[in-house]
Predict the 3D structure of the following.
Amino acid sequence: MKALITGASSGIGKDIARYLDSLGYDLVIVARREERLKELSKELKNNVRIIDLDLAKIDNVYKLYELTKDESIDLLVNNAGFGLFGMTYKTDLNRELEMIDLNIKALHILTKLFLKDFVAKDRGRILNVASSAGFMAGPRLNTYYATKNYVLRFSTAIYEELKRMKSNVHISVLCPGPVETEFNKVAKGDFLMKGQRSDVVAKRGIDGCLKNKLVIVPSLGMKIALFFNKLVPMKLSLYVTYFIQERKSK
């Protein structure tokens, strides 16, 4: 068995690599930071291939596919992504476009290209990492929330297509709440509540994926919060979300 993991140099991606290695998977680990990938590879027992590419550059996304399409990938984990706190009229446009390229375009391209291969051989799994943000709009973290909405809806629609085809290919989407990763540092903000450990989120994400679960929310507290969010009017949800993001933005 072999898995390809993007954004594997830190956080959830790194812990997904560790967990899959413990399950006996050979790995292709991808990120911008080669040194971190090398450090990670020293921990792992099974075969590991390191590919250092910045997937916010779309040419590199196609390059990654060309480098790995003949690797007999069984599981694709689209984890690479980042956020950016701030009022939309103030945040850096180029940084937001880079976020869209990475969070949406790179994920879309890899999902589509590997999906075609998986369908052709009638086997394979895809785990797309979204967020609990994918169920809501996010004032002061607007573009990030919007990208995760895309990932969630894109993935769930593919699930239904595969189900109607009676395909043996499976897709899952991981939607955690706050997680203890480098997200805050990159996005320039702080969570109000203590995040889940990334190794716990990684394990629950992979376990859910291997059980063919569609949407994986790894925290009971977040499941409850998302349930109540469905019940409140949109304007109240926006008010509460703005208040939360305002308090955690630096």
Observations:
- The chain has one domain: 2-248.
- The chain has a mean pLDDT of 91.
- The beta strands are 2-6, 26-31, 48-52, 75-78, 124-129, 169-174, 179-180, 196-197, 215-216.
